[in-house]
Write a structure and sequence with these properties.
Blueprint: H1 3-29, H2 36-59, H3 68-77, E1 95-99, H4 102-107, E2 111-114, E3 117-120, E4 125-135, E5 139-141, E6 144-145, H5 146-150, E7 157-164, E8 185-191, E9 194-200, E10 215-223
Antiparallel strand pairs: 1-2, 1-10, 2-3, 3-4, 4-7, 5-6, 7-8, 8-9, 9-10
Helix pairs in contact: 1-2, 2-3
Length: 224
């Protein structure tokens, strides 16, 4: 590689790093303070992976496989990334659901869904907000996909919701379904009259590197 060729590639690497940092800063500046928690979730699920893709693009520059600025645009945009779960969607689940099997009946009993709340017969109540949409083929732990765990198609859309405290300044309540610990994320799969519910402990980004112990359990309900 000649010195003349190395200089532009070095400049492009620096540009990629600067762009990744600027994207994060602009994102945080564009929101209000009360939305900080939501912003952090977006950074974890969207901005951080984008920054990693930009870094990978920069690493391919010496080999000539980075496709120049078109490759940079593709790295920032990503391909087949997670879909955002939109607040106020008309597909929000509601109503009463009974246990669809003996394990669900014993552990959770019935389920009532009112707007963003999940109320279990055992007394556990969860307040949630939209997080993102995952596909059935995505992993929630090493070697474990939603499709395999819930016996669902690979393109099934699983709604991930973040668990929020019942009131500002309060901690999320402990749950019987999580062995006395709070839940951090709820996964919901709606198929006709059936709803599958998975609960995950807090502090984890749900994906292929999530420890298996993060899963509290999975239960199936039928509409009444």
């Amino acid at each position: 590689m000649t010195a003349a060729t190395a200089r532009p590639q070095t400049a492009l690497k620096r540009l990629a790093g600067v762009l990744a940092f600027v994207c994060l800063v602009l994102f945080l500046l564009a929101i209000e303070q009360k939305q900080t928690v939501a912003a952090w979730e977006a950074v974890r699920y969207e901005a951080v992976p984008a920054a990693r893709r930009v870094a990978d693009w920069a690493g391919r520059l010496p080999s000539g496989a980075a496709d120049g600025f078109q490759g940079l645009k593709a790295a920032v945009k990503g391909a087949g990334g997670p879909l955002a779960a939109t607040p106020g969607s008309t597909a929000i689940l509601s109503g009463e659901y009974g246990p669809a099997d003996a394990d669900t009946r014993e552990a959770a009993g019935s389920l009532t869904m009112v707007r963003a709340e999940l109320r279990f017969e055992t007394g556990d109540t969860l307040r949630t907000r939209p997080l993102r949409i995952a596909f059935g083929r995505e992993s929630f732990a090493p070697g474990q996909t939603f499709a395999a765990r819930l016996n669902a198609p690979a393109d099934a859309q699983v709604e991930l919701r973040a668990v929020v405290p019942p009131a500002r300044g309060q901690a999320a309540p402990p749950l019987k379904l999580c062995g006395g610990e709070p839940a951090g994320v709820v996964a919901l799969l709606h198929r006709g009259s059936r709803v599958d519910v998975m609960l995950f402990r807090p502090g984890f980004v749900i994906g292929g590197e999530t420890p298996p112990a993060a899963l509290c359990g999975a239960w199936t309900f039928e509409a009444r």
